[in-house]
Amino acid sequence: MPATLLIDTHCHLDAGEFADDRDGVAAAARHVGVGTIVVPSVAASNFTVVRACAECYSHCRIAYGIHPLYIEQALDDDLLRLRDWLRCEESGALRPVAVGEIGLDYYVPGVDVARQERFFIEQLKIARDFDLPVLLHVRRAIDQVLKCLRRVGVRGGIAHAFNGSRQQADQFLALGFKLGFGGAMTYPRATRLRTLAADLPLEALVLETDAPDIPPAWIGRGRNSPAELPRIAEALADLRGIETAEVAAMTTSNAKSVLFLS
After folding, report:
1. Long-range contact pairs involving 75-81 (C-beta distance under 8 Å, separation at least 24)
2. Are 16 and 261 in contact (CB under 8 A)?
3. Domain count, the chain
4. Residue 78 resides in a domain
5. 248 sits in which H/E element
6. Can you give the residue range of the structural domain that contains 119?
7. 10 phi and psi angles, rounded to 5 deg
């Protein structure tokens, strides 16, 4: 177990892939030194399940939001529901640490871009009203996400699964964001992403698994889990030519600062 407890800043522990062994998955992550797991929602329909993760596992923290790929099924009233959930939980023991997972996704053909952008803007306004950071989904839509962030300023957050250019990375950093790196950077062919992971300021980076998705190279197409985070930290340390302990200490500090974790 590493001396510094790691923070998995993005893990869908509520997902159906963990239905049969969620207790074991949560315990295994804690055993290898993952001190905090941030569990974001993807739709209003799973707010309750996400909340249950924090009720069951003391090292889980939660975020509420509507993922861009779930916007097609979302109702306008879900934005009111999001606001109500944040209001009800904002001062309790299960206080959310962010609004998320929100953002834009232009990768999937045929998406309703206008509807995605409307929901994203409205959720940024909600995050601003509650003075919360945001967990951003930015697939194939980084420039438009940045444009929306300049239109509606929020209290920073994390650009999850970042895979943009150095120029785009610097723009996120200027807006008070950290950049999430996980399993994708462990693949030797991901040369551009690995270069970013090696060259960006360590103060800019946080660790994540996105479990059960984005499995690291040593898993291949298998199910990812938050227990893989220590090896992901080792991979980042190897890319940077530094000790894993330094990566653990800095990424944990970064996550605490941007998500206001104690």
Report:
1. 75/44, 78/43, 78/44, 79/119, 79/122, 79/123, 79/126, 81/44, 81/47
2. no
3. 1
4. yes
5. helix 244-259
6. 6-259
7. -160, 105
Residue among 69, 97, 92 at smallest CA distance from 8: 97
Write out pLDDT tens, residues 74-117. 999 999 999 999 998 877 779 999 999 999 999 988 889 999 99
User: Cα dist. 39→61, 66, 150, 232 in Å?
Assistant: 6, 13, 26, 18
* Burial class (CB within 10 angstroms; exposed 0-12, middle 13-18, buried 19+) of 77: exposed
Q: What is the pLDDT of residues 202-222, one digit of tens each?
A: 999 999 999 999 999 999 999
Does the pTM of the predicted model rise above 0.90? Answer: yes
Identify whether the C-beta of residue 177 lies closer than 8 Å to the C-beta of residue 258: yes
Task: Give the HSE-up count for residue 74: Cα atoms under 13 Å, Cβ half-sphere.
Answer: 26
3-state secondary structure of 110: coil
Return the number of other C-beta atoms located less than 10 Å from residue 199's C-beta. Answer: 11
Is residue 1 domain-resident? no
